[in-house]
Amino acid sequence: MSGLAEIARAAGVSISTVSRVLNRRAGVNEETRQRVLSVLSEMPYTPRGLGALQRTGVIGLLVPELSNPVFPAFAEALEVRAARLGYSSLLCNTRATGSAAMGEEEYVRMLLARGVEGMVFVSPEITNVEVPLGRAPRPSYYAKLLADGVRMVFVNGATPSLDVPDVTVDEQHAGYAATRHLVELGHRRIGFVSGPARSLPSRLKRAGWSAALEEDGLPAGSEYVAHAPFGPEGGAAAVAALLDAVRPTAVICSSDHMAIGVLREAHRRGLAVPRDLSVVGFDDIPLASYCSPALTTLAQPIEEMATAAVDELAHRLDPDRRRRPAGNYTRVFRPRLVVRESTAPPPPS
Amino acid sequence: MSGLAEIARAAGVSISTVSRVLNRRAGVNEETRQRVLSVLSEMPYTPRGLGALQRTGVIGLLVPELSNPVFPAFAEALEVRAARLGYSSLLCNTRATGSAAMGEEEYVRMLLARGVEGMVFVSPEITNVEVPLGRAPRPSYYAKLLADGVRMVFVNGATPSLDVPDVTVDEQHAGYAATRHLVELGHRRIGFVSGPARSLPSRLKRAGWSAALEEDGLPAGSEYVAHAPFGPEGGAAAVAALLDAVRPTAVICSSDHMAIGVLREAHRRGLAVPRDLSVVGFDDIPLASYCSPALTTLAQPIEEMATAAVDELAHRLDPDRRRRPAGNYTRVFRPRLVVRESTAPPPPS
DNA sequence: GTCACGCCGGCAAGGTTTTGCGGTGACCGC
DNA sequence: GCGGTCACCGCAAAACCTTGCCGGCGTGAC
Predict the structure, then answer these.
(1) CB contact under 8 A, A115 and B114
(2) Close Cβ partners of A217 (under 8 Å, ≥ 6 residues apart)
(3) What is the DSSP letter of A128?
(4) Helices (DSSP H) in A250-301: which residue ranges?
């Protein structure tokens, strides 16, 4: 029952004025315009005649960033699968750097207004346990979307409290398997080059890492963990801190992207990988096998995950089978250890 | 002047029927419904009530692929600039692999139907001189868009015959500068690891390459050029062919992405870079400085180019200054030689 | 052959949005 | 203080879309 009249009443202006705001016509005071727009964002306005846009064949893909190649890889895999199912994809980069950049929530609004039928969130904002001030999605943000009937699927966005289907790698197992690999090679001082502390995936990997270490009574204290921003620079900084402090003979990393920075920092210090330092990455980005040395890493099954995510979304979009037996909405994929050249037994101390 | 009447006429049905389709009411044959919908996608329908969408603040970004990190980098830079100007961006990956994937033209249609105000094409399809059969944009494709008043800007899409503003690097100069750098180091057999022959940028680089070689009377025949698909695999394959045939002491590459494959293939063959083989890339992707050895490359000024492109588009979107003095629509940026570790004088033969 | 039924067009009433026009008030120069 | 100008906004007419109703047409069943 939303119409101009209701908007007008809420904004305390006439219908004409709302219409003019909507049509960006001149003759409306900026202040009034803002008031109308703010009302409009509270109660999204869907003109009549937009019925056709209900079934648009378009879905939204939200990724946190593009500089880590794993996200373009996910985007491409999701897109290919979506195309096969007859959907076209709109990609949004939700955490683009730059002060004026838009956040996830703004993008979701925009996509909805553009008539997408559903969305796939890759590493959604909610996995930031403490989101930075001012950018925080209100607690009810995703819940509100759900209540509005927005169809969505998370990829690597584990959120037990939310009734959103989730396709995820077992991050904890990834941390565990990477660390076991190093332990079995004989390493005893194994560091963790971690992303920011607020990142849930990094926390889960850390849990796996410490579990693997404690099995053999190896040190798993916080002095063996270095947090840094995602990206090669962060990886380099984190491993530098670890090397200066506890001199690990091996490190695992939150991502291949960070691991690349680790490789670089080791090179800069004259440390040979894997002779002096073993490195394990995560994700298995396409470039991992092209590094020198080629990265040992835990592979996310990107295509399988993308397929599962898009299929689940398509399933929920299909008007015929919209209801679904309440059940396990989470699909967990096991990462796969890919041993390449960046790991070896530790140097004889 | 779009209204239900026009749609109805084009679809050969009555206004009532169109309205019923739009509102998903029963009593319309599926076949008729499809016909109306297809007309609707041809001439995007903007109900009066949709005036809000006339000025949507949304622009489309079309990139050919995401696996070469230069494209995510461009996308991010474009997006940041657009956000600063109050636009949000929708990203489309126009040449996603997979048979069912959508092409550039389909994406453009879809974006238009979703109400974008303008578009930035990065390396548009038109730069494929001979596009593969079946995917060919009809000759009039871009011209038709222009005639329809679609606002667009090309990045690296030099097309003198089309009245589209273009922001581009000087590809020919890039090829020239890279080759000169190698010539000055003393190389005399310099190969070109090129993308597909149909790629215009690769052709331009080749022109620069041969110009630089001919200045010194060095060989610039086609036996020194190896074409391969873009990507590391292509780079590896192309350099393998060159090494087997003419044994160059240095190569330049169509992209850093290909150069990474060259590095890998050299490593595989036990050739040390730069001792046995010098390599020059193009683009200066963020990872170029993290390779081992770090890549010498020609840097595209990505941020400046993105800024110029978005600003030009915004300028054309601004209703107040829509007209523009007819003039030079092309901005050419000089690539910058960044010397790192992958080039050195040739081995003493 | 007849009937039922689904589908579509025409019409008109009713609702919604757009837009031309005029009123109001702020501001400015005199 | 006065009149003029201008931006801004509401009124109301016009334009447009939705929807119910009915009739025509073709198809297929009986």
Answers:
(1) yes
(2) none
(3) B
(4) 256-268
In this prediction, residues B255-277 reach a mean pLDDT of 95
May I ask the CATH class of domain B171-300? alpha beta
Cβ partners under 8 Å of residue B95, min gap 6? B64, B65, B101, B103, B104, B125
Architecture (CATH level 2) of domain B4-51: Orthogonal Bundle (1.10)
CB contact under 8 A, A51 and B24: yes
Rounded to a whole number of angstroms, the distance from the CA of A329 to the nearest CA of chain B is: 28
Taking alpha carbons only, the member of B51, B73, B54 closest to residue B63 is: B73
Amino acid (1-letter code) at residue B279: V
Under CATH, to which class is B57-169+302-331 assigned?
A: alpha beta
Q: Tokens 């008007």 map to which residue?
A: A319
Taken as a whole, chain B contains a residue count of: 349
Tell me the CA distances in angstroms from B4 to A251, B8, B14, B105, one per residue in order.
64, 6, 9, 25
List the domain boundaries for chain B. Answer: 4-51, 57-169+302-331, 171-300
Q: What share of chain B is helix, strand, coil (3-state, %, to 5)?
A: 45, 15, 40
Residues of A in contact with B69 (CB under 8 A): 67, 69, 72
- pLDDT value of position A325: 46
Residues sharing a CB contact under 8 Å with residue A325, sequence separation 6 or more, in sequence order: none
Select A57-169+303-333's CATH number: 3.40.50.620, 1.10.510.10, 3.40.30.10, 3.40.50.2300.
3.40.50.2300
Q: Say whether A48 and B23 touch across the interface (CB within 8 A).
A: yes
Give dist(CA A277, CA A263) in Å, integer.
9
What Å distances lie between residue B175 and B157, B191, B203, B256, B258, CA to CA?
A: 17, 11, 10, 13, 15
Q: Count other C-beta atoms under 10 Å from residue B25's C-beta.
A: 12
Work out if B27's Cβ lies within 7 angstroms of strand C: yes
Neighbour tally for B198: CB within 10 Å: 14
pLDDT tens digits, one per residue of B109-166:
788 777 788 899 999 887 776 655 555 555 567 887 877 677 889 999 877 778 888 9
Residue in A49, A56, A267 nearest the CB of B22? A49
Scanning every strand, the nucleotide with its C1' closest to B3's CA turns out to be D16
Structure tokens at A58: 């378009």
Tell me if domain B4-51 and domain B57-169+302-331 are identical in fold. no
Token pair recorded at residue A72? 């373009």
Q: Mind listing the pLDDT tens digit for each residue in A131-170? A: 555 555 555 678 888 877 788 999 998 777 788 899 999 9
| Min Cα–Cα distance to chain B from A219, Å | 31
Find and list the nucleotides of strand D having atoms within 7 Å of a protein beta carbon. Answer: 7-12, 16-21
Q: Are B76 and A84 inside 8 Å of each other by CB?
A: no
pLDDT for position B325: 41
* Residue with the larger pLDDT of the pair A3 and A35: A35
The torsion region of residue A270 among left (phi > 0), alpha (psi -120 to 50) and beta comes to: left
Nearest to B69 among A24, A69, A88 (CB): A69
Dist. CA B115–CA B55, nearest whole Å: 8
Strand B225-227 relative to strand B151-155, pairing: unpaired
**Nearest-angstrom CA–CA distance, B116 and A102:** 17
Is there a contact between A324 and A109 (Cβ–Cβ < 8 Å)? no
State how far the Cα of B127 lies from the Cα of B78, in Å rounded to an integer.
Answer: 20
For A27-84, how does the pLDDT look when each residue is reduced to its tens digit (9 = 90+)? 788 888 888 877 876 776 666 555 555 566 789 999 999 999 999 999 999 999 998 8
